[in-house]
C-alpha cells in the first residue's frame, strides 16, 4: 500500500472545491491509495454512545470523494474514527457500560461498512486507536462479524504503536494495522542511518508478530511534522516551533528504506495531506503534510521509481 490520508474536520470538507485538487496532488506523488476518516464524537471517555456533529463528514460528501478518488486512479480505505468533544485521547475511552457502548459502536461502524460496500471502497478499518476497549476480544469479534455481513473487502484495525500487542481480535481480521508513531531517539536528527538503526529492533519485533499472527502488517498511519524533533515524538503536532523539513524528510526516507521489500510488510498510509482551507490549527509549514516539502520529493523518489 502506497497511501496518504486525507482527513476531514467539517461536514462538507470532502465535497469542497479543493477535493479534486488534493486527490490529483496525492496521485502525483506516486500514491496509489487514499484514506478517508469520517469521525463521530462522544463527550467523555466513559460515555455509552457516540454521535455525529458538525465536524462529521456527511455521507454525501464521503460518497463524492470516494468517486473522485476512483476517477483519479486511487484505491480507497475508509477508516472511521471516534473522538472526544471535550478533548483527550481516544485511546482512553473506557465505557462505563461496555455492552451499551459496543452496541452503539456496532451501529456506527456498520453504517460505514454499508457505505463502503455501496461505494466500492477497497479496504476498511473497523476501528482506530481504541486501546481502552481493544483487549475485549468477545465484543470486538461480534463487531467484526457484523461488519463482514455488510462489507466483503479487506479488513484491518488501526492500533497505536504501543497498543497492537494487546489487541485481542487480530484473528478476525485480514491485516494487522499499526499507527507507526514510534519515537526513534531522544534527540533531533536528520541522520537517516541513525534513524534506520533505531528502527531495527522494531523491525525484528514486527517480523515476529507477523509470523505469530499469520497476518501482514500495514502501517495504517505514519508521519512526522515539519518541526525540529519530530522523529523523537512522531505522534505530536507540537514538538517545537522550529522548522524541521529536513528531519521530516529523513523520517520518511528511513521508514521507506527500512521496510521496503519486507515480505510481511503491507505498506504505509502517511498522515496526512493538506488541511482544508481555514481548518488547520497548525501552520502548513510546521504540519504533518509533506506537500511542497523535501518529504514529498522522498515519496516521489520511492514511489515513482520505474514508472
From TrEMBL:
Gene3D superfamilies noted in UniProt: Glycosidases (3.20.20.80)
Coiled-coil regions listed: none
CDD domains: GH113_mannanase-like (cd19608)
Protein name listed in UniProt: Glycosyl hydrolase
Source organism (scientific name): Streptomyces luteosporeus
Amino acid at each position: 500500500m502506497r497511501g496518504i490520508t486525507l482527513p476531514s474536520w467539517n461536514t462538507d470538507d470532502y465535497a469542497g472545491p479543493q477535493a479534486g485538487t488534493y486527490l490529483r496532488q496525492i496521485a502525483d506523488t506516486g500514491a496509489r491509495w487514499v484514506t478517508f476518516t469520517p469521525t463521530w464524537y462522544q463527550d467523555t471517555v466513559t460515555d455509552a454512545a457516540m454521535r455525529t456533529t458538525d465536524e462529521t463528514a456527511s455521507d454525501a460528501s464521503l460518497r463524492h470523494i470516494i468517486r473522485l478518488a476512483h476517477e483519479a486512479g486511487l484505491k480507497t480505505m475508509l477508516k472511521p474514527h471516534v473522538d472526544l468533544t471535550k478533548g483527550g485521547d481516544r485511546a482512553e475511552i473506557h465505557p462505563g457500560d461496555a455492552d451499551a457502548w459496543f452496541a452503539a459502536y456496532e451501529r456506527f461502524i456498520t453504517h460505514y461498512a454499508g457505505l463502503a460496500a455501496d461505494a466500492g471502497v477497497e479496504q476498511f478499518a473497523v476501528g482506530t486507536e481504541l486501546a481502552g476497549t481493544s483487549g475485549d476480544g468477545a465484543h470486538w469479534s461480534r463487531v467484526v462479524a457484523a461488519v463482514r455481513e455488510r462489507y466483503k473487502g479487506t479488513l484491518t484495525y488501526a492500533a497505536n504503536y504501543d497498543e497492537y500487542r494487546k489487541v485481542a481480535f487480530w484473528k478476525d481480521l485480514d491485516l494487522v494495522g499499526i499507527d507507526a508513531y514510534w519515537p526513534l531517539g531522544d534527540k533531533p536528527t536528520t541522520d537517516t542511518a541513525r534513524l534506520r538503526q533505531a528502527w531495527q529492533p522494531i523491525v525484528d519485533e514486527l517480523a515476529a508478530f507477523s509470523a505469530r499472527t499469520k497476518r501482514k502488517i500495514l502501517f495504517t498511519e505514519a508521519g512526522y511534522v515539519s518541526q525540529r524533533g519530530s522523529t523523537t515524538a512522531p505522534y505530536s503536532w507540537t514538538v517545537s516551533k522550529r522548522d524541521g523539513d529536513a528531519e521530516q524528510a529523513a523520517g520518511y526516507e528511513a521508514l521507506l528504506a527500512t521496510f521496503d521489500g519486507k515480505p510481511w510488510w503491507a505498506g504505509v498510509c502517511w498522515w496526512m495531506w493538506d488541511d482544508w482551507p481555514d481548518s488547520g490549527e497548525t501552520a502548513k509549514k510546521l504540519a504533518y503534510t509533506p506537500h511542497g516539502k523535501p518529504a514529498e520529493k522522498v515519496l516521489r523518489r520511492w514511489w515513482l521509481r520505474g514508472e
